[in-house]
Specification:
Strand 4, helix 3 and strand 5 form a beta-alpha-beta unit. 42% of the residues are buried. The longest helix is centred in the first third of the chain and has 13 residues. The chain contains seven helices and eleven strands.
Length: 252
């Protein structure tokens, strides 16, 4: 496999990743920035790929001197192996463990019921019943749901392994927000929606959403002001610049 070495989070995180497969970037940094890790908490990154979200979370914890345990679940063996390389080449990655397994097998001894304080996930965005899958196999697995592992599967699994009052956090396309919110209220509890806008213009709707739900916490939905990535000159807004390149976190 041909690979590239890329930096994210303002050159703080080094990623070796496939040259022609799925490339981690902005979504990973944004999702990692909302997780408020406390001392000795346990976090899992489901569908972790080469470890972008896990490593960004590990960096935030390291910077704030917060010991924690991070697991990454990845079905593709070659990506799991690359994640292991990335853990070794980033000095703050020592608290990360890679688990090469299928989401359908969860819970397992490695990933038990009611274990994690936070579950994070950047799942495949394409509905299994719609659109054409990418020809690249690795990219197809990352971008498109399969008929037996749908968005509902990801969300139900997350609620199985998160502790009571723990959080599950997903980043996804805005057009599937209603589906995620419905599943979270059906299975979990209080839900917060954080829209991500590409540009600051009146006629532009959000392209992405981060949705966070807390298991066992009763409540409705909260809609946050969200984040605008680019200003009218197509430059990064100050808030986006701080999150993406200066390692600031999102107040969620």
């Amino acid at each position: 496999m041909e690979t590239t070495n890329d930096y994210i989070l303002g050159n703080r995180v080094l990623l070796t990743q496939p040259k022609y497969g799925y490339k981690a970037g902005l979504d990973a940094v944004l999702l990692a920035s909302i997780i408020k890790i406390k001392k000795n908490q346990k976090i899992i990154d489901m569908g972790c790929g080469v470890g972008a979200i896990s490593l960004c979370m590990a960096f935030h914890a390291f910077e704030n001197d917060i010991p924690c345990e991070i697991h990454g679940l990845e079905i593709q063996e070659d990506l799991a192996n690359l994640m292991q390389e990335n853990i070794k080449q980033n000095p703050f990655g020592k608290n990360i463990k890679v688990i090469n397994d299928n989401l359908k097998n969860i819970p397992t001894n490695d990933i038990p019921y009611n274990y994690y304080d936070h579950v994070v996930c950047n799942p495949p965005y394409m509905d299994a019943t719609k659109g054409l899958k990418p020809q690249n196999t690795s990219r197809a697995i990352a971008h498109a749901e399969s008929s037996d592992i749908t968005l509902e599967t990801w969300i139900k699994t997350a609620f199985k392994i998160v502790k009571n009052r723990g959080t599950i956090s997903f980043i996804h396309t805005a057009d599937r927000a209603d589906e995620i919110i419905h599943l979270c209220h059906k299975t979990g509890g209080e839900t917060t929606i954080y829209p991500i806008f590409s540009h600051k213009t009146p006629n532009k709707s959000a392209k992405r959403v981060i949705i966070q739900s807390r298991r066992g916490v009763k409540g409705g939905s909260r809609l946050m002001p969200g984040l605008i990535i680019h200003d009218s000159h197509n430059d990064y807004t100050t808030q986006a610049q701080n999150i993406l390149f200066n390692a600031h976190t999102i107040e969620f």
